[in-house]
Each structure stands twice: as C-alpha cells, then as structure tokens.
Amino acid sequence: MKLKVVIHKAEEGGYWAEVPALPGCATQGETFEELLQNLYEAIEGWLEVEAPSVSIPEPAGETTVLEIAV
C-alpha cells in the first residue's frame, strides 16, 4: 500500500506529519529520521485499529508523492 504523507516543520523544532487518507493518523519526531520511524509505527497502529471498519481507497497510479511544507 502506498500512502501520501504531509510533513510539516514544527515551530518549536522537529517535525510532525499527517496521513490524509487515514483520518487522525499523525505523529511527530525531533529529527526527520525519527519522524519516519514514528510514521511507520503510527500507520501500522492505525491500520490495526481502524482498517477493519474503514474502507481505504487504493491509489490510482504508480506514483508516490511526498509533500514537505517548508
């Protein structure tokens, strides 16, 4: 499964990210590497809890988009 992730630089330092296709799925990290690790854990946790009751649309194409707000 490929998901679009929106990454923001936090005002107080570090980063936070959200996954628009998974309502309420968001996380943070002090470094970009920590953020990515936390994203995988947040997505996995969301899918374990919410996926049985929510229909997640499959992406239309073969392209993965990562948006970074600077």
Set down the secondary structure blueprint.
Layout: E1 5-9, E2 15-18, E3 26-29, H1 32-50, E4 66-69
Parallel strand pairs: 1-4
Antiparallel strand pairs: 1-2, 2-3
Structure description:
The longest helix has 19 residues, at 32-50. This protein is 27% helix and 24% strand. The chain has 70 residues and is α+β, with helices and mostly antiparallel strands. It is built from one helix and four strands; from the N terminus they run βββαβ. It is elongated and about 35 Å long. It has a four-stranded mixed beta sheet with strand order 3-2-1-4, with helices on one face.
Fraction of helical residues: 25-40%
Query: Based on helices, strands and strand pairing, what is the structural class?
Result: alpha+beta
Low-confidence stretches: none
What is the chain-wise order of helices and strands? EEEHE
Number of DSSP helical runs: 1
Largest sheet: 4 strands, mixed
In total, the number of strands is 4
Overall morphology? elongated
Radius of gyration: 12 Å
| Ends apart, CA distance between termini | 26 Å
Placed side by side, the strands forming the largest sheet appear as 3-2-1-4
**What is the percentage of strand-forming residues?**
15-25%
Look at the structure and give the mean pLDDT: 81
Properties at a glance:
single chain; 70 residues; alpha+beta; four-stranded mixed sheet; 1 helix
Give a short synopsis of this structure.
With 70 residues, this protein is of the alpha+beta class.
